[in-house]
Amino acid sequence: MKGWLFFVIAIVGEVIATSALKSSEGFTKLAPSAVVIIGYGIAFYFLSLVLKSIPVGVAYAVWSGLGVVIITAIAWLLHGQKLDAWGFVGMGLIIAAFLLARSPSWKSLRRPTPW
Questions:
Q1: What domain range is 7 assigned to?
Q2: 17, 57, 75, 80: which one has the fewest Cβ atoms less than 10 Å from its Cβ?
């Protein structure tokens, strides 16, 4: 269970860091640049902990997929990024893949959690 909690922390760190990239203006603005560096540091640290209990293929697919969905939703809601019907379909497929990755059939691939 800690693996999935660490997963949430890793995804939140990645989403915050990626969202701050635009505001950093190519790392010319100090505060947003610091948010990017700290956010990615948190994301990769907690992702490394996740990999102790979840196979790398599953972990990376879920991490990157949910990151894409959340960042796209933030860009659509807060920054006015256009998203057509196919974009929503694609995000739905990513969410479906996440749910499948959490299904019982994947449990046989998991290693025991050391924590």
A1: 2-109
A2: 80
